[in-house]
Amino acid sequence: MKKLTYGICGVLVLFGLAACVGPLQQDETPPPQSVSYVDIDAFMGRWYVIATTPGVRHRNSQNALKDMQQLDDGSIKIESYMLSGDEEPEWKMYEGSARIRNIRTNAEWEISYTWPIRQNFRILYLSENYDLVLMGDDRRNNLRILAREQTIPNHRYSDMMIQAQNMGYDISRVRRVPQNQ
């Protein structure tokens, strides 16, 4: 009888705590729309980082680029290189990996540079000839503009920023990454 009483009290305490906390807050904003299809073989290779929402690594970076290679197991190896530092910049390399979350479109990825942290990214725009891409995370906190060349014309950059803003990204946080040729 004692065990039953303790069990009932325990359940009542849990319900009471749940009532105090209330429902868990969840962001009900749907993720941004990704492109309809990405040819992974065409997408692989070198991409220059034209602009990014800077995290710790990209705060003072320049000449940033990403080399992407699909491995036999279907995952994607990402090697990120950049000059980093204010007074005497030095080359840094960070290795990450990606897993394609939607194999029907290949446009939704889970990316990680530091285990166990993973972020869901989407390919939001991809030019027909695979020379310019806009990638953003599902929560609209991180954005990347990547290109096959070190620079892009200002009108293409402006177009990407307008597209990102229309998708709900805060473009005031985006930093253009200097690419010294």
Describe this structure in words.
The chain is built from three helices and nine strands. It has helices spanning about 1-20, 40-45, 155-165, and strands at about 45-50, 60-70, 75-85, 90-100, 110-115, 115-125, 130-135, 145, 175. Helix content is about 20%, strand content about 35%. The N and C termini lie far apart (about 80 Å). Residues about 5-25 have low confidence and may be disordered. It has a single domain (about 45-175), classed as Lipocalin. Strand 6 and strand 7 form a beta hairpin. About 20% of the residues are buried. It has an eight-stranded antiparallel β-barrel with strand order 1-2-3-4-5-6-7-8. The protein is an alpha+beta fold and about 180 residues long. The longest helix has 20 residues, at about 1-20.
